[in-house]
Write a structure and sequence with these properties.
With about 170 residues, the protein is an alpha/beta fold. It is built from 5 helices and 8 strands, in the order H-E-E-E-E-H-E-H-E-H-E-E-H.
Length: about 170
């Protein structure tokens, strides 16, 4: 009986910190040694995920191409940028590649795609705080209030993509 209580208590505790569809995740700030905005290193907070529908790519640099088919299809939709935003959070701790190389690439990407917010996560903070997949390509969609609408770790299937686009369009 005690074992059941411990297991149940652990599961409840884990679910409170994990990313949950329908809920606003725990506020996380990436700054200083933990990361920040790619363009200038200034702090980034997940509390800024509001007022628009946001699609977040949380990516291990070694897995950057896993969901390029979804990214390309998303760009082709040309959603109204006053109602839609995109975030690319790069998990620098998940790769063997040197941070300075990835940071240089991110600054270049920020110039090439100024409508996307590029963020560095130097210590897998979102892996630890939101329990998203590590060493992966994660897609998270948020509504205008910051609630999670969709979460997928790994490669998006055609069905996943259809669901994602339906949720974006229903919430814009």
């Amino acid at each position: 009986m005690k074992l059941k209580a411990v297991v149940l208590s652990t599961l409840v505790t884990v679910s409170l910190s994990a990313l949950t569809v329908g809920e606003i995740p725990k506020t996380v700030t990436l700054s200083k040694d933990n990361g920040g905005l790619a363009v200038d290193g200034s702090p980034w907070s997940s509390a800024s995920i509001k007022d628009k529908v946001y699609v977040m790519f949380y990516v291990d640099p070694d897995e950057k191409d896993v969901n390029s088919h979804f990214s390309d299809a998303l760009k082709a939709k040309k959603y109204d940028r006053t109602k839609y935003g995109s975030l690319a959070v790069v998990n620098l701790a998940a790769t063997w590649k040197p941070n300075f190389v990835i940071e240089k690439i991110l600054k270049s990407k920020q110039k090439e795609f100024p409508d996307t917010i590029y963020v560095k996560d130097k210590n897998s903070v979102l892996v630890n705080e939101w329990e998203v997949a590590d060493d992966s390509s994660d897609i998270i969609i948020f509504n205008k209030d910051g609630n999670v609408l969709f979460y997928k770790a790994g490669k998006m299937s055609d069905e996943d993509m259809q669901k994602a686009f339906s949720l974006i369009e229903a919430n814009i």
